[in-house]
Amino acid sequence: MTKFNSLGLSDPILKALDHMGFEETTPIQEQTIPLGMEGHDVIGQAQTGTGKTAAFGIPMIEKVDKQVRGVQGLVIAPTRELAIQVAEELNRLGKNAGVRSLPVYGGSNMERQIRALKNNEIVVATPGRLLDHIRRKTIKLEQVHTSVLDEADEMLNMGFIEDIRDILKALPTERQTLLFSATMPKEIRDIATTLMNTPKEVKTKSKEMTVSNIDQYYVEIAEKHKFDALTRLLDIHAPDLAIVFGRTKRRVDEVADALQVRGFRAEGIHGDLTQGKRMSVLKKFKEGRIEILVATDVAARGLDISDVTHVYNFDIPQDPESYVHRIGRTGRAGRKGESISFVTPREKDQLNLIEKLTKKKVDKLRVPSYKEAQKGQQDIAVTKLTEKMDADDINDYKQSARDLMDQYEAQDLVAAALKMLTVERQETPVRLSSVQPISTRNAKGAKGGRSNRGGGGQGRNSQRGNSNKRPYNKGGNKGRSKNFNQNNKGK
DNA sequence: AAAAAAG
Question: Which residues form the Helicase C-terminal domain (predicted)?
Answer without folding.
Answer: 213-373
